């Protein structure tokens, strides 16, 4: 294991994280609903999901999952259903309307929002079968069969930390724009678009082979 390999992995993980997908949409949704703390919670949840996928890929469980048609289908359908559920919630929020400008939430409410966002970020990443396929294709390029436990731990940490850094930056950027984004008309449009995207992504995952 050398610095070049670690940086190469970080670059690939960063490019994958930056591409629009379920993680991005859930992050945006979390910040708009709960502010910066919720966004940071979501970032930690997504990074935890990446960490979990890196670990299970390293010990071979992800390969078994991909090789089992039944197990892979269960994960795929569970992930699709979860994204559709989040999408429907956003669409219902857009339909109800009645948004107010962002206010300082109470401490207890903020903590609940952060925990909810963490859970949503984690589950969205864990239930995305494309993440499993991504790691199965990526890991052998950086982790040879004779890799040590230390090598595996370093690569796993690099993958998780890269995701955490990117989504933390994204959470702060969206937070800076939150006052504009949470204006009633803008928020309603964003919720409608996010809801449609989440439902669409969920359906696409469900019907994918």
Automatic annotation (TrEMBL):
Transmembrane segments: 6-26, 38-56, 62-86, 122-142, 154-177
Bilayer topology annotation: Multi-pass membrane protein
GO cellular component, one term: plasma membrane
Keywords associated with the record: Cell membrane, Membrane, Transmembrane, Transmembrane helix
Recorded GO MF terms: amino acid transmembrane transporter activity
Stored InterPro entries: LeuE-type (IPR001123)
Compartments it resides in: Cell membrane
Subcellular location, principal: membrane
Pfam families: LysE (PF01810)
Superkingdom: Bacteria
Name of this protein: Threonine/homoserine/homoserine lactone efflux protein
Lineage: Bacteria, Bacillati, Actinomycetota, Actinomycetes, Pseudonocardiales
């Amino acid at each position: 294991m050398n610095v070049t390999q670690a940086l190469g992995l970080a670059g690939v993980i960063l490019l994958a994280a930056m591409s629009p997908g379920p993680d991005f949409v859930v992050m945006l949704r979390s910040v708009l609903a709960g502010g910066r703390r919720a966004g940071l919670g979501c970032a930690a949840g997504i990074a935890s999901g990446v960490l979990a996928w890196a670990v299970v890929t390293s010990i071979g469980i992800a390969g078994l999952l991909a090789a089992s048609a039944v197990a892979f289908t269960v994960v795929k359908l569970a992930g699709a259903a979860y994204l559709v559920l989040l999408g429907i919630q956003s669409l219902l929020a857009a339909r109800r309307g009645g948004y107010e400008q962002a206010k300082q939430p109470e401490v207890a409410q903020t903590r609940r929002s952060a925990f909810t966002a963490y859970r949503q970020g984690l589950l969205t990443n864990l239930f995305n079968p494309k993440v499993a396929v991504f790691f199965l294709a990526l890991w052998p390029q950086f982790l040879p069969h004779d890799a040590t436990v230390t090598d595996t731990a370093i690569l796993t940490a690099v993958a998780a930390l890269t995701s955490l850094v990117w989504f933390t930056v994204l959470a702060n950027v969206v937070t800076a724009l939150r006052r504009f984004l949470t204006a009633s008309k803008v928020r309603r449009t964003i919720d409608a678009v996010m809801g449609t995207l989440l439902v669409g992504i969920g359906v696409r995952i469900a019907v994918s082979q």
